[in-house]
User: What shape does this take?
Amino acid sequence: MRARVLVVDDDPALAEMLGIVLRSEGFLPSFVADGERALSAFRENRPDIVLLDLMLPGMSGIDVARAIRSESGVPIVMLTAKSDTVDVVLGLESGADDYVVKPFKPKELVARMRARLRRGEDAAPEMLTIGPPGNQITIDVPAHTVTRDGDEVKLTPLEFDLLVALARKPRQVFTREVLLEQVWGYRHAADTRLVNVHVQRLRAKIEPDPERPEIILTVRGVGYKAGTG
Amino acid sequence: MSGASPDEFFRAARAGARGLWRRVVRRLTVLFVTLEHTWRRSLQVRVVTLTLVVSSLLVAVFAYVVAYRSSTILLNRAEETVDNQVESGSRYTYEQLQVFGKPFEPSVQSTMQDIVFYLGGGNSQDPGAGLVVLTADGSVDLNSVQSRSVSIGEVLTSDIRNAVGAGQKASAIRSADLGAGRIKYLVKGTPVRTKFGQVQLYYVEPLTAQDSAASQIRTTVLATGGTLVLLLGLLAALVTRLVVRPVRVAARTAQRLSAGLLDQRMVVSGEDDLALLAASFNQMAANLQRQIVRLEDMSRLQRRFTSDVSHELRTPLTTVRMAADLIFAERERFPADVSRTAEILQNELDRFESLLTDLLEISRYDAGFAMLDAEPTDLVPLVRRAVDPLRGLADRAGVRLDLDLPANPVIVEVDPRRVERILRNLVGNAVEHGEGKPVEVRLVSDGAAAAVTVRDHGVGLKPGEEKLVFNRFWRADPSRARQTGGTGLGLSISLEDARLHGGWLEAWGAPGQGAQFRLTLPVRSGDRLTSSPLRLVPDDAEPVALSGPPATAPAVAPPATPAEVGR
Assistant: This one.
């Protein structure tokens, strides 16, 4: 099945070029040029992945990402010309899963998209439980659901993958680089802020007190690990 | 312990004494340090202390002069009085004893009694009154007579008796107990000639009145002086407080200003010098605030501009890049010339892209918007990460990359992306200029600082090039063909990256001996570096260059030295 891609970019030349590249790689792209119409196009097309320019007329890419995230967990990859800390972190915090800095190589972009789309192959029944006693969450891997105290916690696919990666090997400390490889699919080390921001987002959803995390613990100078009893 | 020998006891006692002494010394040291600190810190304490010391000295001198002069005057008065008494007494005695020719005449002794009775003012037994003594010379067979019977050995000492005995007048002050407690007496003696020989007349007058007057004067002077000193101290404290308080307020306001609270101002009251200080201070603060706000605005505009230019340039570059990639992937289907064109286009786009990235990075530094995103990071894998992508380049250049890394993690608070970029630059440089010889990378930490050295054995650096390598777009040898097509900004950016960490980036090199770059970073972000755990000049370097002065850079001083090209 060909994956549907929604490209949100105001530059017609770039959009057309992206279309050529994506089609040649077997994607089914659709385009929208401004932020205002991005959300309606998203609802209409039900894409499998969104490519989102950060600087848009009308509504900024960050607002679009926030709007999409509020109603769907579909992967969002930002296209950004700004690699400054603030812009990238803002984009990630508003819900983007990954980002590509312009000018990017087409292969790089496609690899990033594939990494976000690859998932759900391992359908073996698997239930994971992490967290200290009295503060545990349960993960049903094939069903892609996370519950705490019987209530389901809504996670995006990326957050889910991150949580499963940590939960499968409790007590093991994961460096940010290892997580980038396992969850994001980077073969060479990339921006570790991706991990930091998404761990914060994940904590905000599953920790009773995100300031004092008990389920995903920081190991200073090394990385993260799942908290256990 | 019961079985302790005296030896042990003394040893224990000595140890105890030493401990006590040490404690006392420590206490005193602490006290001294505290006092010294207060002295240095407070203008008010200094002024008040100085006022107290100087006024105490002045008052002491003044009091001494007054007390000395007044007691001298009192004593002189007393002496005059007694002198008059002695004079008239001696005349009276002479007249009374004139009638006797021989000492053993029967009524001499009784006449002497009468004289003393008369001169002593009657048969006085008042213990506080004076005393008159009439005595014949020892050779004469007459008893000494005194107006009151007390022991007078203490007042009529032999030196006075001898002097009077030799026919001279004598005068002295003696302290003695003649029935009224131990007080001072003025003793005056005079010889009186008679027909039967010489007799001696002594007046012993108590100086009680003079003494008490003198001590009253002393007390008064001391009390007044003490009060004066205290008042002066108080006055100094008040006056300095008056001056120091606005100064302190100004200092506090200045601190707040420098902490970024730009709208802090002082209260201006009155029209005196202090009000002038406050007004000038406020004017200065207002000017500073205006300047800072203006610079901030400019800076914001610059950042906006950099960001916008970045976006505007990058979007078309992305499109071109994708188009070029597509053409490049299909190049085999084109004629040879066009195919080669596609390759050149691809390579030059890479260069264009890295140049743009570096330019934007350096403009961020110039605008002062580079931010340190420090987190505790293990440098060992970070060095590997920086080196690994360059292995392909190294293989093509025939350069062996030797890593000398510690077995344990080296956790340092750094911005990993920046440090990785520095190391990539240094190693890429070394590979490019290594002339096929091995490149060595070492990492060492000493707990306070971590250092990475990158050594190559290429052409090295000429004397004087040490400082140039960090210049923008500087190239060691403009005629040499470039292999990696660096932008010429790599080392400039690396130097800025190192400085942002509070670290050092230095270079050493000598012609024919290659070059070594050293990056030193503080283990805790924000700490000051004092030394580097690795030497800048490699151990195998020859101390003197083949010709000309040695091209070594100072080993410790921050950014120094040699090397080669940007990136």
Notes: The interface with chain B takes residues 11, 13-14, 17-18, 20-21, 24, 55, 79, 81-82, 84-85, 102-107, 175, 177, 188-189, 191-193, 220-222 of chain A (CB under 8 Å).
